[in-house]
Each structure stands twice: as structure tokens, then as C-alpha cells.
Design brief:
Layout (H helix, E strand, L loop, with lengths): L8 H23 L3 E6 L5 E4 L1 H6 L5 H4 L14 H12 L1 E10 L5 E11 L4 E8 L1 H23 L5 E3 L5 E4 L1 H7 L3 H4 L10 H17 L10 E2 L5 E2 L1
Antiparallel strand pairs: 1-2, 1-5, 3-4, 4-5, 6-7, 8-9
């Protein structure tokens, strides 16, 4: 029997280490809370992704999403993908780029992307987060603030907010009418400016008591000095 033997221990160790590394990579990829992906630059076809990405866009698994979801077809607003690609060409990457996307079932979601492009190899890779609830909450807050402001601007009572020092930080139109100042002059104005010295002391004591105890002050009569010098109660 003639034979040749070669010591391949190092090669086998390298193969085992490679398999372990790939397993760790897969575990990280699939367990990440971010939507991780690799897509083709030319049309946005998904080449690789984790399950989080798949579920974000309406698929049961990454296997079902890969090769089927083509992002170019799912941007809601025209020209948004071109804007992202322009930034990628200019800088090689984008961070916190937000876009409205349609899922497989047609539902619209907001996604915040951070991507890096590899133009020579025709792909980009990155992470994304579904920020739909965040966007909806901000929009609801905006609408609430608009309603709040509309109500305050249309009531006859003067409404105001002050900081600890007694400086105006917010007020409505009626408060401006009562004091006779335009809004730009009233912002930041201290209560000593529109009361006499003795009454300013009473105002400070009242504000301080409300601030320190949290107990509202009711039926507190003000003696205000308007811009034209007239005194109003």
C-alpha cells in the first residue's frame, strides 16, 4: 500500500471557526430588534434580510421576503428613493433617512433607514426601524397643540404661563389685550414690569406658594399697569 498523508488540522480548525462565526452572525441577525437588510441598488430587490425586516414589510419570514420584496415599488412618495440614492452617491451613506413605505398587504408604514452603499457591487446594506407609532404620536400631539392654541386664542380670559422668576413664557391674545402690549414685547416680560413694587411682592408670594405647595390660588385679584399707564384690576 502506497499512500500520501497531509496534516489538515489547521484547515479543519479554520472550517469549524468559520461555521461558528457564521452561526453567531445568523443568530445576531435574526435576534436583532432592527430590520437588517441588503438590497440591490438598481431596483431595491431584497438580497438578504432578517425576520424583523420581513415582518416590518408584511412577510412571515426572511425566506419569504428575500427575492420577492422590491423596495423600489413600495415607496409611497414619488422621488424619495432618488433622494436617498443621491445622498448615497454624495456621501456613501445615509443616517436616519425617513420614508413612507407600503407593506405586502398595502398598509403604509414609516421606516427610518441608515444605509451604506456599494456601487461597484450594486448593493446597499443597512438597518431600519418602524417608526409609524412615533410619527402618529407626534402628529396627534401636533393636532392637540393646535386645538389647544386655537381655544386659548379665542377665549376672552387672559391666559399665561411664567417661569420660576415670573417671566412670561406663554400667553394668549386676550392677555396681550389686557396689558396693551404686542406679543413680541410681552415675551419674557417679568411681572414687576406691569405691577407696582408692593403688588409685585404679593404676586411673587402667591406664585411661590403655588409652586412649592401645588395648591391653586383662586380669587386672586391683580392690579395691572397697562403699557399706556392705565391701571386695571
Amino acid at each position: 500500500i502506497l499512500g500520501i498523508v497531509r496534516d489538515i488540522t489547521d484547515r479543519k480548525k479554520a472550517e469549524i471557526a468559520l461555521r461558528e462565526s457564521e452561526t453567531k452572525y445568523r443568530n445576531i441577525l435574526q435576534n436583532a430588534q432592527a430590520a437588517i437588510f441588503r438590497t440591490r441598488l438598481s431596483d431595491g430587490k431584497v438580497l438578504e434580510c432578517n425576520d424583523r425586516f420581513a415582518k416590518t414589510f408584511g412577510y412571515d419570514s426572511s425566506a419569504a421576503c428575500i427575492g420577492d420584496y422590491i423596495s423600489e415599488d413600495h415607496y409611497v412618495d414619488p422621488g424619495v428613493r432618488e433622494q436617498m440614492l443621491a445622498q448615497l452617491r454624495a456621501h456613501g451613506e445615509v443616517n436616519d433617512f425617513e420614508a413612507r413605505m407600503t407593506r405586502k398587504d398595502g398598509e403604509i408604514v414609516w421606516v427610518r433607514f441608515s444605509d451604506r452603499a456599494y456601487f461597484d457591487e450594486d448593493y446597499l446594506e443597512g438597518v431600519g426601524y418602524d417608526v409609524t407609532q412615533e410619527k402618529e404620536a407626534l402628529e396627534a400631539l401636533k393636532e392637540s397643540e393646535q386645538k389647544y392654541k386655537a381655544i386659548l386664542d379665542n377665549i376672552q380670559e387672559g391666559y399665561y404661563e411664567v417661569d420660576i422668576e415670573g417671566n412670561f413664557t406663554f400667553f394668549n391674545r386676550s392677555m396681550c389685550d389686557i396689558l396693551g402690549y404686542p406679543p413680541e414685547e410681552m415675551m419674557g416680560m417679568n411681572n414687576r414690569h406691569y405691577t407696582d413694587k408692593e403688588f409685585a411682592k404679593k404676586v411673587y408670594e402667591t406664585f411661590n406658594r403655588v409652586y412649592t405647595t401645588g395648591t391653586p390660588a383662586k380669587g386672586f385679584d391683580w392690579e395691572l399697569i397697562r403699557k399706556d399707564g392705565a391701571v386695571r384690576i
